[in-house]
Amino acid sequence: MSVVNYRCPKCSSPHSVGVDKIFDGRLIFRCAKCKICSIVPAPGSIDEAYLDFLDRFESGSGVADASDLKLLMEQERIIRPAKEIDALMASANAAGDPLLEDLLRSQQDYVVDFQAIEEPPPEFGSNIEDLPVDEAIISALKAKKIERLYSFQEQAIRKILQGNDVVITAPTASGKTEAFCIPVLQKIAEELPRFGSLRTGEGSSKVSAIFIYPTKALSRDQLPKIKELAEPLGAMVAVLDGDTPEKERTSIMDSPPDVIVTNFDVLHYHMMHRTKFSRMIRTARFLVVDEAHVYTGVFGANVHHIIARLERLAGRKLQVIAASATLPNADEFCQTLFGRKMHIVQGRGRRGRINLAIIFPSLRSYRSLALDLLRQTTKRKHKTIAFASSHLGSELMAFYGSRQGVSIRVHRAGLPPALRKEIEQQFKSGQLAAISATPTLELGIDIGDVDAIISNIVPVNRLTQRIGRAARRGQQGYAFLALGNDPISQYYKMHPADYLADHEYAYTDPANPFVQEYQVLAMACDRPLSMAESKPVWNVLQKLVSKGVVKTVRERFVPDLKQAMKMLNEYSIRGIGSRVDIKFNKKIIGDRSLPQALEELHPNAIYFLAGRRYKVQELHFEPNSQPYAELAVIPSDYPYYTKALTDEWPSILEVYEKKVVFGIEVAYCALKIQKRVLGYANIEIGQEVVQGKKVVLDKPLEFEFVTKGSVFRAPRPVDILQKVDDEQYVEMSGFHASEHVIIEGSAMITGGASQDLGGISLGSSGLIFVYDGSIGGNGASRALFDRLDKAFGRALRILSECPCKSESGCPRCTYSYRCGNNNEYLHKLAAIEVMNRVVEGERTEIGDRIAGDRALV
């Protein structure tokens, strides 16, 4: 309790009334002497709330004795009643566990759910001697002390040996690698000249299989497992990607291995540049794609076309084998991704009991809850991974954790590979108690024993994958889903069953015109297209011809290589785009992708890197040169970090599709976003609130990028406008709040992709744009476009159910931490009317005035 300068209305004691903040915008007033208390909505300032407290006391309603405060908080669902927690723990046979007792009974949080996850062990299949594979494989398995495979592994092996295209879904570390390696290597070995005789380890000098992993780190992590099975057969395996040294690369080209381990970025680049590597892989007969769930959205659409291009060059259909830890819609998704019907093999993994708690922070912030979870797990010697969805989130967790004595480091993309490997080894050896990670560690990199998982809010199947990291050795594990101070967390607190039902269904659209244009151009660069080949992509080719990047020569479509490469080299198949290098003492120590880099690396920005803070001395962002930011150290007691102030302007380049949702016309488009970083605000460490004046940059940073997104016109909040003086301000603020809650409330509907979305509400016009925040797009806005009816309904419930009374709303309904003007100009009641009118079917049309070079309001 923080005592402030308020007098108690009952005992008249000065300075005795303290105020506790509830993060839904309400306040708890308590007198330290006579013990009266009340829970009061905060319509504006604390002073206004105090006047409400006085009114309640005088009227004799809404004020109770402090002994009743706990009951009052239970009734208001601020904390969970002790009897309900007793029942939850008893049903899970967890009563008396010191860690769980401390965390679930803190009386600072609402325990949404608690359960023990105890899965039956996987079913075993035949003895390994009964498998139709070479003795060398059986010997290699015995050397690993494997006498029997799991039944799902045996099922996958037999289906793959029969020549089927197969997707294997099973938890992390359940044995998927053996399930696809054994049959593929068996089929390769049957063609080796030395098969059945003494093996020399010289390979066959042709690539038979391509193994694809989404990251270079995972390729190298899995390489020893593949070699263990391959080398006894005489099959050679090698990794070729951007980190492969030149000498090793030359050796691979001169003596191709039987199995090449790489990624889709490498395939895309080498095929369109017609390199020696692209010729080398044309002999492949097998394509193995691990972590298939990664290839969603635009990335997946590109992957679909890259596989088709590879098969075109190979002159045959490849046998495709995919594996994934989480794919609720594996059948549908993989058929779309790979362009063929796949046989599904499902398996379970072996792990110990997991105690899972879903916790909503009522009387503290999300970060305070997450840090408490981290302290409690590590002080009991539980090795812990704390997951965040953003770079900044992972850096802040490590920063605060280190300040509180936790041995923790950051593991995320953008850090040098050697540093990430060092962190993995330190955690594996026990030198580190915890890792603060982005989804980089959701993938199957081996980091040894994990006892506890702390996760921010993600779709339930992603949470299941993260939980799969814990208790792999059969020990008891702990998993905590820490809900946040945000609209979707508030929604799930009120509707927990919806969280368990909101699975992340993998989504990709190979027919995306934006992707098709680049991939057809790349296909022409691989090898000119004949007239017969051109029929399925005729319209795309005509567009490329009109742009002058493709021409017809002797009834073939041939690229203008100079113009084509200029266009293709600016395109990323992952929808990421260009990057800004981060330098310290003239050495590159990291990087960040555009356009996000401008918000984090503007002059004087405080940038977190590997758990430390730096100040950006200078940002070099000139045309036709690699951009980079120079960092300088700051004192450890420097009290702030920064948040960029931005504005954005959208232009519609092309409309792909239109539909009507309720009565609202919505268009899915190619967009150009003109983004400016105007300045920044300081946020005080530990307070998470803006402090002091905003700082305006001498010269705004400007950047344009092409992406994809949706646009619609929201209905006017006519009723509330009749009751206010400043109609334009209220209308504009209502549209702005509506844009926020549609995006924030769509998190899980879009598979947790809301963090990848940007939004723009154009003043009082009612036009709202929701777009992919990455160059070229990432698929999130398409996922929202497809489910917009559900997002509209959920946005209305979030606004209506939040108990805050502030005009602008609060962090749990209208605020967005991504907002470029710090959540100014929001109006909750106007947004409620807007969303009511949407779901009631009021009709709106986008209109013609937004077509052309710029959107006009």
TrEMBL record:
Keyword Signal: no
One annotated GO biological process: nucleotide-excision repair
Domain Helicase C-terminal: 369-519
InterPro entries, A to Z: DEAD/DEAH_box_helicase_dom, Helicase_ATP-bd, Helicase_C-like, MZB, P-loop_NTPase
GO molecular function, one term: 3'-5' DNA helicase activity
Domain Helicase ATP-binding: 157-345
Keywords linked to the UniProt accession: ATP-binding, Helicase, Hydrolase, Nucleotide-binding
One matching Pfam family: DEAD
Protein's name in the database: DEAD/DEAH box helicase domain-containing protein
Species whose genome carries this gene: Nitrososphaera gargensis (strain Ga9.2)
